[in-house]
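Consider the following input, taken from an annotated entry for Alkylation response protein AidB-like acyl-CoA dehydrogenase (Kineococcus aurantiacus).
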Amino acid sequence: MSTTTLAPTTPTPSTRPVRERFAPLLQRIAEGAVAREQDHELPRAAVRELLDAGFGRLRLPVAEGGEGLDLVELAELLVDLATADSNLPQVFRGHVAWVEQVLSLPPGEHRDRWVERIVAGELVGNSWSEVGDGVTGEQQTVVTTREGRTSVTGRKYYTTGTIFADWTDATARRLLPDGSFEVVTVLVPVRAPGVEVSDDWDGFGQQLTGTGTLVLDDVEVDPADVAPFTDRFRYQTALYQLVLLAVHAGIAAAVERDTAQQVRARTRTYTHGLAPLVRHDAQVLSVAGEISATAFTARALVRAAAQAVQAAADTAGEPGTDRDRAANVEAEIRTAQAQVVLSEAVPRAATLLFNTLGASGTSRARDLDRHWRNARTVASHNPVIYKQRIVGDWSVNGTEPPFVWDIGTHASVARGAQAEGATR
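Applying the prediction step yields:
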């Protein structure tokens, strides 16, 4: 069985102590990545070790028990983690967003309670998506309050990280006094009665992210943990995308690492090659150089995108101002631009890896195909063809990007299906 080592990177001065502290843990995580993938072993131990080491509280202020990192510094660590195991930053994706939401809360008991939980190493997963015939813009999951008891009932899918978590950040609809509904977010305790989480995600990549089904059967929740969706911090979509960009950059770094290791180790060569040793073959080195350039570009794009998202975080206290709006547009566009590039470049680099090796490179024991599978799966989030159009419309016409979107059955299609059923 092969083992892996982390590709060297140069930390910025502000993050150097934190990154150096995590380096030994990330090395251990990297060494077990192939075995976990081959055995479909959820990285529960790695998640726990990361939380115990403080990975979940990196963004909290130092005075509140965190590391006080900004989003650029956090993104650097997420790339490091993705280089070790690309599943893990995605496991933490919902947690990263919830911590950001906690940072946006006003001072008070509710914020303090969540800061204490995060510092204590509690993890928050994500459960926004639903599958089936639900109409876009609506939620089939429902929050109700009866006789002083608030509960949530519904079924979610793509619940990344929830199977490892103490809490899950869910979306739902809540009945208002006038009979209408509003979309809300609700923090659900994963170990409460009525919660069932399944590891039934069947994608060919990112298989260990716990992106499966969540069933909620009249689960009691704290009313303080139910809030209108409109109360969320505005740059959340850009932040969610930033985490996926970091995953892509980490995969690219891992591809560069594994290419170098595999090429250096080869002693067999082809008679029509250009050198007695593959490591000296100019054609192979050219391919390795393209892979290395992609890894460098990916990390640089993550940093540039993170700077834009941090600028939006810096203006969060100025809602409604031109400065805040401009910062949020910038964050959305920069993360989309990076997504457009990396969604093509990183899977390509993961394919080029095999051009540097012989047929032995396809050995399942080496599991080198995981890089392409994982990169292609990440690239399938938030379809890149729509991001291309949105960026183009902004570039040509100055059109602002959408900040929130949804997926489901279009209302007109649902109405048509209902009408067709009524006439049968």
